[in-house]
Automatic annotation (TrEMBL):
Coiled coil: none
Pfam families hit by this protein: AurF
Protein's name according to its UniProt entry: Diiron oxygenase
TM region(s), chain numbering: none
Superkingdom classification of source: Bacteria
Entry-linked InterPro entries: AurF/CmlI (IPR025859), Ferritin-like_SF (IPR009078), RNR-like (IPR012348)
Amino acid sequence: MTSVQSYHERLRTLSEASVHIHFDAFTDIDWDHPDFAIDPADPRWVLPAADPLGGHPWYQEQPLEVRTRIGLWRYANIVKVGMQFENVLIRGVMDYLFSLRNQDPEFRYLTHEVTEECHHTQMFQEFVNRAGADVPGGRRSFRVLSRFLPLAGSLIPESFFTGVLAGEEPIDHLQKAILRSGDEIHPLMRRLMQIHVAEEARHISFAHEFLRVKVPGYGRARRGALSVAFPVIMRVLGDVIVVPDRKTAETIGVPHWVIKDIFWKSPDGEKMLRDLFSDVRMLAEDIGLMNRASRRVWKALRIDGRPSRHRGEPAPHAA
């Protein structure tokens, strides 16, 4: 079986999985159930230690009501960023799909993915609305650029799907760490994370397979350009997803020095930054995007390190 045939078979498997296992934002979440009610004073909004801010000594030393207020705001803002990012993803994928030829199996899988992402945007915005937090989501520069980023879907698809991974991998990493930690979190947030992790596994798998099949066939110049752009896209979009901007931090009362320490000045912050990209380092190695020039960029951006041995390897062993 050729690599293209294997790729098409993989797409068929992902498409069938999307048919048999999928979620609806207003069918699979009982928003009005008493257990899912959002009380801003509920201590279950306190951030777990697996969250970068939740694990910082400054946060842990704050009174319970302060930790609760900050926790709900941070959850809401991350969810809002996720909604904005997936909105860009949907528009970019549809731009990519517009010119696909008949019989191309990418069309069926990617329309499944777009459908799922639409449900995610509904799910995320509903949470933000019910939380009552007027959060901005991504930093202003990202919100402005979001008008143009979807054009990369058809113009430079390898960069676009690299950007997809740059947004999906860090949030997936953090959500899995929180779910694995066993810490008590609000049941509504736990349900959102469970749904998101379950479906994002397919989306991340596709982006990996897309780049794994397409990139080796590109010319030397195109691969060289992507090898250098790859870590830059990862770092820039990863920060958009994970790091609250200064104005947002000030709004919820988190000192700027705390944000700087967490993202990514402290030893724990530096390790977390590298951990977020261990899977994509593995992908870059596998598809020939690690070379002398690109390794320097990975190192300069402080996201270098040993790649994962397999996708989804827990962070302590993948650092």
